[in-house]
TrEMBL record:
Full protein name: GATOR2 complex protein WDR24
PANTHER family associated with the record: GATOR COMPLEX PROTEIN WDR24
A biological process from GO: autophagy
Lineage per the UniProt record: Eukaryota, Metazoa, Chordata, Craniata, Vertebrata
Annotated catalysed reactions: S-ubiquitinyl-[E2 ubiquitin-conjugating enzyme]-L-cysteine + [acceptor protein]-L-lysine = [E2 ubiquitin-conjugating enzyme]-L-cysteine + N(6)-ubiquitinyl-[acceptor protein]-L-lysine
Enzyme class: transferase
GO cellular component: cytosol; GATOR2 complex; lysosomal membrane
WD repeat boundaries on the chain: 116-158, 203-245
GO molecular function: ubiquitin protein ligase activity; zinc ion binding
Record's keyword terms, sorted: Autophagy, Lysosome, Membrane, Metal-binding, Repeat, Transferase, Ubl conjugation pathway, WD repeat, Zinc, Zinc-finger
Comp. bias (Basic and acidic residues): 495-510
Enzyme Commission number(s) of this protein: 2.3.2.27
Stated family: Belongs to the WD repeat WDR24 family.
Domain of life: Eukaryota
């Protein structure tokens, strides 16, 4: 290895100058790094490896490190780092698993210095020690980290993270022997380079892979991490346990994080997908970026501050094959476009409204909200720090309270607890839910459930109760059991209708007042001589309502074929030959009926001129089994109506009960929105069981996975106290069964209950039965166990 000259150039009196500028690259960049004096930047990628000089107003290409007619995979770089103490020393992480160092002081065209091929998979990150010249650290996809001494031909230490992949490694800026490593399983480990056998500390930083980490340049114990969960977290490592002190929520996975020089609370981030912008955050105000750089047209792959003591210049490379220098004064400030007004409803209907004090200061009628109510936070503003550059906007908060009784949500809780969504036939579910809504004084919802039962039930399977109006009909063929033609032929000739009298009269059929299907709208009715009252036994004495028409049962098909009726209920008759007698059981009812008096018992006024059918008796009013698709448009509109009104409980409940009858009529995004809203309400009211039931009954993939994520169960062996693997019920270390029932001495593979005092337990039923007769532990340890 040739001798390399040490560069000690600092910012000093020659301050960095420049402007926002960019240059086009030959290929997309994967990583960039800047030399210590901030005069040159190296860009590395799969098909590019060049050094550019940073001049006043442009980038100038200085050196192309990809030499040779057929460049090897050693030139395909996943990461690059420029040593901050040796100006001629570079290190790259190759996609073929090689770690390559480059000496720019070599006189030959090929600047490759050393090649380490100990990693078996792609190397994701390389990092030089900040003060030790010849120490290089690498992290690979194979789960190992290796420490190299550049004066030797092989690694001097190997660190195993016991994980699938190492995504980033960073030496501490203040602690000489410490480095941090982030992993795809969400863990962050701290290692001492003197102890390669075991990490010093490990903690779970994110719910997904941790893609990057960065030590604070000034504060010794602060470590920033970014991951797939779209979070940037700042950890205090000076305590016994890693303590999260700041958390920033971004809009995409975090690929790079870099602390801003000379600014304690500022850091820059970029995303690895979707979002192309670079954000600078103030961790004390994590909800809105402090500054944004929006120049790139594709994903930003590398960011670095130009100088370690200059916070005003940021360099970035992207997949859009551009290299940018961003000047901080040209950045977009999202806070300048932020809306200082806010509006929010509380859980119990209270309304909070915040607005600029300058807008409402003239409103003398506004009463200040009393600060004594502890339900609301008290807002106050400290004297702004001089280093704080965020725009300060003071807003006045007004809270409008509502009467709790007027907006009570007890009906929601009771409905959620009492509704049945599965486990019974469809008709019983609808009837039960309708009864629940009726008892809670929600008649519209109750009627909706009843209509759903009518529309989607099979009419042949309906069995009305003894009090149902349909049961009064006896057998249905009574309605269709006579022939008007036969009735006309049997009438006597002496009973002729007087045409002259009938011309000035309206068509009138005297039925019983109790009939709800055909009503008599004429109060001044005159009797027509010679007509008998056959209308009384067309429907019998039973009373019908609208629901009964949909519930009629057409069992007697032979009678329907035998008796055929004309299209008109009453034909025009000029001559009645005979007076047929009514059936005996109906004659008796007609004579005894208190609603029929005088000649009304014998004569019914039928006008031949204006006679028409109020209801077609010869045809059924509906098809015995209408397809579900006939009602689906109406039900879809009904569900949208309830959802838009805010009653997502009804929309989701009907969606679950109807199931496949209606599910295909509503798009998946709408269903997911309804489910999410209803589950959120249930969890606000702490109805965890109902919420879990709704999640289980949902068919949306985005909903069914809600109770299968963010749940981690750590199992330790009851004998050796070591963590158990997920391969089985036998401990890998002591080869003993982990959970053995203290009563039956068999392995518990289902629900396990144990005493928190002595840690013995077993099957739930076995322990419960044991403690009914004995208070001592069944394992014989002498502990007095208590089952609650």
């Amino acid at each position: 290895m040739e001798k390399m000259s040490r560069v000690t150039t600092a910012l000093g009196s020659s301050a960095i100058s420049g402007r926002t500028m960019f240059c086009h690259l030959d290929a997309p960049a994967n990583a960039i790094s800047v030399c210590r004096d901030a005069s040159q930047v190296v860009v590395a990628g799969r098909n590019i490896f060049k050094i550019y000089a940073l001049e006043e107003d442009q980038f100038v290409e200085k050196l192309n490190l990809r030499v040779g007619r057929k460049p090897s995979l050693n030139f395909s770089c996943a990461d690059v780092m420029w040593h901050q103490m040796e100006e001629n020393l570079l290190a790259t992480a190759a996609t073929n698993g090689a770690v390559v160092t480059w000496n720019l002081g070599k006189p030959s065209r090929n600047k490759q210095d050393q090649l380490f091929t100990e990693h078996k998979r792609t190397v994701n990150k390389v990092c030089f020690h900040p003060t030790e010249v010849y120490m290089l650290l690498s992290g690979s996809q194979d789960g190992f980290m290796k420490c190299f001494d550049l004066r030797k031909k092989e690694s001097v230490s190997t660190f195993s993270g016991q994980s699938e992949s190492v995504r980033d490694v960073q030496f501490s800026m203040k602690d000489y022997f410490t480095f941090a490593a982030s992993f795809e399983n969400g863990n962050v480990q701290l290692w001492d380079i003197r102890r390669p056998d075991r990490y010093e500390r490990m903690f779970t930083a994110h719910t997904g892979p941790v893609f990057c980490c960065d030590w604070h340049p000034d504060d010794r114990g602060w470590l920033a991490t970014g991951g797939r969960d779209k979070m940037v977290k700042v950890w205090d490592m000076t305590t016994n346990r890693a303590k999260e002190i700041f958390c920033v929520q971004t809009i995409a996975s975090v690929a790079r994080v870099k602390w801003r020089p000379e600014k304690k609370f500022h850091l820059a981030t970029c995303s690895m997908m979707v979002d192309h912008n670079i954000y600078v955050w103030d961790v004390r105000r994590p909800f809105i970026p402090f500054a944004t750089f929006e120049e790139h047209k594709d994903v930003t792959t590398g960011i670095v501050w130009r100088h370690q003591h200059d916070p005003h210049f940021l360099l970035s490379g992207s997949k859009d094959s551009t290299l940018y220098q961003h000047m901080f004064k040209d950045a977009t400030r999202p806070v300048d476009k932020a809306n200082p007004e806010g509006l929010c409803f509380g859980l119990f209907g209270d309304l909070a409204f915040a607005a600029k004090e300058s807008l409402i200061s003239s409103d003398s009628n506004r009463k200040p909200y009393p600060g004594g109510d502890r339900r609301y936070p008290i807002f106050f503003f400290k004297k702004p720090d001089q280093t704080e550059q965020f725009a300060h906007v003071s807003s006045a908060l007004s809270v409008f309270e509502t009467d709790l009784d007027s907006n009570c949500m007890d009906w929601f809780v009771k409905t959620a607890q009492l509704y049945l969504l599965c486990g019974k036939p469809f008709t019983e579910l609808c009837d039960h839910n309708a009864k629940v809504a009726r008892e809670l004084r929600r008649p519209q919802v109750s009627t909706t459930w009843t209509m759903l039962r009518i529309m989607f039930s099979d009419p042949a399977n309906l069995t009305p109760g003894p009090n149902h109006p349909l049961s009064k009909l006896g057998t249905l063929p009574l309605m269709n059991s006579f022939n008007m033609k036969e009735m006309n032929s049997g009438m006597g000739a002496e009973s002729r209708l007087e045409r002259s009298k009938g011309e000035n009269r309206q068509d009138n059929s005297h039925l019983e007042p109790g009939n709800s299907l055909i009503s008599n709208n004429n109060e001044d009715n005159e009797e027509t001589e010679g007509s008998e009252g056959q209308a009384e036994y067309m429907f019998g004495d039973a009373e019908l309502d609208d629901d009964d028409l949909y519930s009629m049962e057409h069992d007697n098909q032979t009678e329907e074929q035998e008796y055929t009726l004309p299209q008109e209920a009453f034909q025009l008759r000029h001559e009645i030959m005979d007076n047929p007698s009514a059936p005996e059981h109906l004659q008796q009812d007609k004579v005894d009926s208190p609603h029929v008096s005088g000649n009304e018992a014998e004569v019914t006024c039928l006008t031949p001129i204006e006679s028409f059918s109020l209801i077609s008796i010869s045809q059924p009013l509906f098809t015995p089994q209408l397809p579900a698709s006939f009602f689906c448009p109406i039900v879809r509109e009904m569900l949208s109506y309830y959802a838009e009104k805010g009653d997502v409980q009804m929309a989701v409940s009907v969606l679950i009960v109807l199931g496949e009858r209606i599910r295909k009529e509503i798009d998946d995004l709408t269903q997911e929105h309804w489910y999410t809203s209803y589950i959120d309400l249930l969890q606000r009211f702490e109805l965890w069981n109902v919420s879990n039931e709704v999640i289980k009954l949902s068919t949306c993939s985005a909903i069914t996975c809600l109770n299968q994520t963010s749940t981690t169960l750590h199992i330790n062996c009851s004998n050796c106290k070591r963590p158990m693997s997920n391969r089985g019920w036998i401990c890998d270390r002591c080869h003993q069964c982990a959970s053995v029932c203290a009563v039956c001495h068999h392995v518990v593979k289902g629900l396990f209950v144990w005493c928190q005092g002595c840690n013995h337990g077993g099957h739930l039923e076995h322990i419960r039965n044991w403690l009914k007769s004995s208070a001592h532990c069944p394992a014989g340890c002498g502990h007095l166990c208590e089952y609650t």
